[in-house]
Write a structure and sequence with these properties.
With 38 residues, this protein is an alpha+beta fold. The protein is built from one helix and two strands; from the N terminus they run E-H-E. It has one domain. Helix 1 links the parallel strand 1 and strand 2. The protein starts with a strand and ends in a 5-residue tail after the last strand.
């Protein structure tokens, strides 16, 4: 069985970083994209 792939936009933000952490803990392959414009 293949791992689930997840794309998270805004991965450096508050919600995006929590989403990355959650999906990683679930065993998914996570790709995060952010423009880092803070």
């Amino acid at each position: 069985m293949s791992r689930q792939r997840v794309l998270v936009t805004g991965s450096s933000g508050l919600i995006g970083s929590e989403a990355v952490r959650y999906f990683d803990q679930q065993g998914a392959e996570v790709v995060g994209i952010d423009n880092n414009m803070r």
